[in-house]
Amino acid sequence: KQEVTQIPAALSVPEGENLVLNCSFTDSAIYNLQWFRQDPGKGLTSLLLIQSSQREQTSGRLNASLDKSSGRSTLYIAASQPGDSATYLCAVKEDSNYQLIWGAGTKLIIKP
Amino acid sequence: GAVVSQHPSWVICKSGTSVKIECRSLDFQATTMFWYRQFPKQSLMLMATSNEGSKATYEQGVEKDKFLINHASLTLSTLTVTSAHPEDSSFYICSARSPGDGYTFGSGTRLTVV
């Protein structure tokens, strides 16, 4: 059974720092992996989608990598800003028709 | 881009009443929609998969008679919480498989049962 783990559960860093969020999954046979952002009491915003054949995706200050063989993905945030404060979730899809399997999220706080 | 509209954004209801939450795909057809629930400080949990024109598939432990899902058209799925109780208070989010193989999420509904 696929399990998705995100470490750390919470992270607080000063503004301007570069940081890395981690996501690991137990079964490497995934279809794709997606990173989301959730602001308190709000819905989800999709940040980056990495297909199983890809190794990374970039959007602005965000870069997500995928290493299927080791069951890991990282989300790199460059030059962090207070507006980046949110909970970041990763989710894995095992098959084109399957639902997402979620990590518990990392709560990120960027201190001004 | 693909947009999913969910409403209401928040609702307060009395215990024992029913509440309907709507999820609409605005610019694409969604044959499959998903309903999630999130309790405070916990991750999203899939409740059910809604397929247009057929019965929803519920996850283990989710009461299908309590959480009624209807997906009567390619752009609309509804979740009705029947005979709501305070323990049903939660954040409910719908999503749809969007073009490009990703998922698009609604903005969520905060349900408070008093």
Binned strand content of chain B? over 45%
SSE ordering of chain B: EEEEEEEEEEE
Q: What does the average pLDDT of chain B come to?
A: 89
CA distance, first residue to last residue of chain A: 41 Å
Q: Helix/strand-derived class of chain B?
A: mainly beta
Largest sheet of chain A: 6 strands, mixed
How many individual β-strands of chain A? Answer: 11
Counting DSSP H or I runs of 4 or more residues, the number of helices of chain A is: 0
- Using the alpha-carbon principal axes, give the shape of chain B: globular
Q: In percent, how helical is the residue content of chain B?
A: under 10%
How far is the first residue's CA from the last residue's CA of chain B?
37 Å
Number of contiguous helices of chain B: 0
Structural class of chain A: mainly beta
User: How many strands in all of chain B?
Assistant: 11
Describe this structure in words.
The complex is a heterodimer of chains A (112) and B (114). Chain A is mostly beta strands and 112 residues long. In chain A, 0% of the residues lie in helices and 57% in strands. In chain A, strands 2, 4, 5, 9, 10 and 11 form a 6-stranded mixed beta sheet that branches. In chain A, strands 1-3-8-7-6 form a 5-stranded antiparallel beta sheet, with no helix packed on it. In chain A, a hairpin with a 5-residue loop joins β4 and β5. The model of chain A has no long low-confidence stretch (mean pLDDT 91). With 114 residues, chain B is mostly beta strands. In chain B, 0% of the residues lie in helices and 53% in strands. In chain B, the strands form 2 sheets. In chain B, strands 2, 4, 5, 6, 9, 10 and 11 form a 7-stranded mixed beta sheet that branches. Chain B has a 4-stranded antiparallel beta sheet with strand order 1-3-8-7, with no helix packed on it. Chain B is globular, with a radius of gyration of 13 Å. At the A-B interface, β4 and β5 of A face β5, β9 and β10 of B.
